[in-house]
Amino acid sequence: MGTFDGLPVPSDKTYLREELARIDESWVAARFDSLPHVVHILTSKDRETDILLLREQSDVVEEVVDEVVHAYHGGFNKAIQNYSQILRLFSESTDKIGDLKHDLAEAKRSLGTRNKQLHQLWYRSVTLRHIIALLDQIEGIAKVPSRIEKLIADRQFYAAIQVYLQSSLMLEREGLQTVGALQDVRSELAKLRGALFFKILDDLHAHLYNRGEYSSVASSIYERDDEVPTTTAVAASRMSSQPLSRRTRTLKGDSQFGVRGLTNGSYRTASTEEGSSFDGHDEEDSVEHDEATGDGQTIRNGTDSKLLSYQLPPWLSDSSPDEFIEAVRKSDDPLHVKYLQTLVQCLCMLGKVAAAGAIICQRLRPTIHEIIISKIKAHMETKNLSKSACSQGDRTGAAGLHFIKGQSEAYRLSKDKPQNGTSNSGTHLAVSPVSPLMAPGGKAQAAAKDLLDSILDTIVKIFENHVVVGELLELRASQHDINTPKSLPTDVNWNADSEASQATGGYTISFPLTVLQSECQQLICEILRATPEAASADAAAQTAKLAKKAPKKDKRDASEDGVTFTFRFTDATVSISNQGADLIRQGWGKRAPNSSQEGYGSAAVLPEQGMYLAASIYRPVLQFTDKITSMLPKKHSQLVNDGLLTFTENFVKDHLLPTMFVDYRKGVQQAISSAAAFRPRAHTTTYTPTVEKGRPILQGLLAIELLAKEVLGWAQAMPKFATDLVKYVQTFLERTFERCRTAYMEAVLEKLSYRLIGRHDIERLMRLDTGSACLPSQLGHSVSHSEAVGSEVELCELFLNLPSIKQDNLIRDDNKLILLASLSDSLEYVADSIERLGQAVPRAASQAEGNSRNQATSPRNLASFADEYRKLATDCLKVLRVEMQLETVFHLQEMTNREYLEDEDAEEPDDFVISLTSQITRRDEGMAPFISGEKRNYVFGGICGIAASASIKALADMRSINLFGVQQICRNTIALEQAMAAIPYVDGDSVQQNLDRVRTYYELLNMPFEALLAFIAEHDQMFTPTEYSNLLKVNVPGRDTPSDAQIRLSEILSH
């Protein structure tokens, strides 16, 4: 930026800026030195021109200065005028202040002359003012009853109590005690105190059971659970929506109820969901307006809830500010907790804590009983509506199986009907001790769990309110004279002793917990059809009573097995003051006749009742206990030790588990001992891999598998008892395995195939067979082709070197072979099922007990049972394979020690070949529905190899053979090849290769000696030296064999 850029040059004289820009910067230096310029002019050759240039620059500067002066001249003049005006005003103000001082001095002198008169007037005005105030107070007190009634009608209880206490204190003042006109007001206030107490108590009772305007649940107890309103009223929008995981924190020992007890968040509710906590609102401006969307959802308008949480609740809008109201306003507690705190504070200010506690205790059990019945009726109405709304078929498969994860497909097998026309549910009904409704995942289990979840959820919400009220009352009980009207204290100390219960009318946190669990226990006993005895008697006396006489059954609770269980819940001793007893006699505490003795009507909701429903009850009770424990203060945490969960666990341990073991043991015995248990039945001619489509599993093993799934389903429902239930399954599986082993031994006992598979050398060779890869229990690792071929040749040699096989050494009954095939597939199916179930066995019990051995034992033991079942299945398949190979050797051994001197061309195979092929076809058709194609290949795949080896070896024992004899043998191989080709999944290339080798071998007998030697020289590896030697040893009519034939053959093979 240049030096002259900021000068105010007009737009029409822009050339001045250009001229200024040409002036050298040295002319505007801070310390101008003229000497260089003078020297420059004097030494210049053209002095006139330089001087003229300087004059032009001087004119430009002067013109610029004129423009600057012209631009700033007006401002300078205005500033001078303003300054002059300021000086003038300052001078005038000085004069006026002087006059004001003079006037004030004159007024002071005038007032001082009349001081006594002014004092008398002031005293008279004060007296009159006091008289007017007293009259105003009398007039105001006369209006107090109507004002209190209006506040009660507007549900402004705290403001009404404030007015009542203030009026009572005013009536006790010295000036008002002798006013006779106020006696009627005193009597009216006494009556209003009682009316106000009952109003507060009614509202407290309604909010304790979530029936009030500011309750934590928006819907009433009597509404159906599945009805969710899309829009809410203004009162509902003020409510606090809290999830099931909220818990009430304990009150700190050094907290103060009036100020610190609230601001410290003693009753703050915690939520597992972000943004679900909603605190207090102001009465009108703070109400959030809900906007209903088109799909019925409700959208908040974006008001900051943090700002709303510190605004005054609507029920305190008419109250006078004090410490309690300020504490409520600053508190972060939910709206319903603040309202409960307000009601308790009202009772404390009225001095009615003991009376209120006594009445709450008196009404607790009937109210809970009524609530449970109403919930059951709501479920029944919902059930009836759902039945009338949709008349679809019975959906038993996965009806509400919430507590069994990943096991729904296990029970679908017992409910679905396969495509082959048979139903597995028939087997399930025949052996299971429970109906499909009572089975794990059945409709009865799901209905019981849903019902108990709903009821216990309601009980938890109610108990949360009782914890809030109980802690407040116990805190106030530590003070002195809490049952007389008094103002809010400033210091609170926690002293939990026996006097606290009397001060609160017997109401403590332990009392509602005991009653709630007692009612829930009676409901559970009704669901389980258990008959609870009186809880007040000693356990030993109860045991003796039950031992002397049979348990009494009534028509409603009578169970099939007459289970009797004694529980020991007792209501806490209620110490009711005279005041509370009077209030109860007035009618508020009237109790419904025999309300606790009546039933709940759960039979109308549940399809069935019985002790097996304990499985669906266990998890809701466990969750209920966890929630209750999280709500209790530390000093009361031991109250749940002998509660509902202990009762349920004792019932399961002492009654359900023994009954379950006996029932399922009978079912297992019935399943494996029936005549049809191990009778193969197939409804299709081909094998199907799934039971739903007709996989022919043996009925006994299918029933065992279903029973095992069912018992492990109970284990999933009751993780703590999973170890015992898994032991039951292990016992059942062990007994079933022994029965399967017996059936297997009955089929193979004293048979050659059974003895052979037990030999170590044959077992080793069978392990190297490539076909063993399809076996349920892998016999070995992958092997090379050369090892597999070598093992097959060696195995054939072992079989062919056996002594002559007799018919008694073989399994001639095809039904036994079919049984072995079906038993193998059924065992594999059960093993796979056991393995899947073993991976899903719950470990909760062993984790809870800290027993690492039990934690790993259950899955490992079930896996070991699966291995045993697979091993037996593998033995069945090995017996079948060896049996078919031995049958082949048995039939082909007729080729030895005979002469094949036929006189005509062969049109039919030999009789023994016909017998062998028909037997192969018959057995294949019989086994086809029971084993898969890969296993059929394993069973029948070894026939061709042993047949080829036996046919080639038979030449050594033949006396003579001619051309037609060779054709007969070739015809035999063709018949065998055709029989094997009819079996699906059998390797046709291997069959053809083995039998072509036999035909090639016997066709060599038709060659002349020299041609035979030439063939041997070219194909010395095709057959063994012994097999080539047998070609020369056998007598072939018409073939000339020199005497040195063996020597020449040896020479050829040696090279």
TrEMBL record:
GO CC annotations on file: exocyst
Biased composition range(s): Polar residues: 263-275
What are the start and end residues of every segment in region (Disordered)?
A: 255-303
Q: Where is the Exocyst complex component Sec8 N-terminal domain?
A: 16-151
UniProt-listed Pfam families: Sec8_N
Keywords from the UniProt entry = Exocytosis, Protein transport, Transport
InterPro entries, per database record: Sec8/EXOC4 (IPR039682), Sec8_exocyst_N (IPR007191)
UniProt GO BP = Golgi to plasma membrane transport; protein targeting to membrane; protein transport; vesicle docking involved in exocytosis; vesicle tethering involved in exocytosis
Q: Carries keyword Protein transport?
A: yes
Family, similarity comment:
Belongs to the SEC8 family.
Q: What does this protein do?
A: Component of the exocyst complex involved in the docking of exocytic vesicles with fusion sites on the plasma membrane.
Name of the protein: Exocyst complex component Sec8
